[in-house]
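Researcher: Go.
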Amino acid sequence: QVQLVESGGGLVQAGGSLRLSCAASGRTSSSYIMGWFRQAPGKEREFVAAYNLRTTTTYATDSMKGRFTISGDNAKNTVYLQMNTLKPDDTAVYYCAAGGPKIYSSSHYYLASHYDYWGQGTQVTVSS
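Model: Structure:
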């Protein structure tokens, strides 16, 4: 089992920044891909970004590139999501996810169903 603990959410004004962290513990050797998804009220959960702790490869949606940056620390089994120039549309619960064996092609990084473990989520609220 892998446990994921997210932190860093909160309330911020439009144009502001937040940095989310997600620390993994437990049997992390097979869960070397960590990602962020978000879900706004009444909407589907959507992919934000992912990081491969073994290769340091990153994946992100085009709409968030330039504002959101994912990074990781393999030694700490932790990933970070730096979010800049936040907009009210970024308001959502942000979930950390981890996986490995079921993510073996680029397209899998973007699919929630390919991740094995999930954090409880952290609320990000952007006021206008």
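Model: The CA atoms of residues 25 and 114 lie 19 Å apart.
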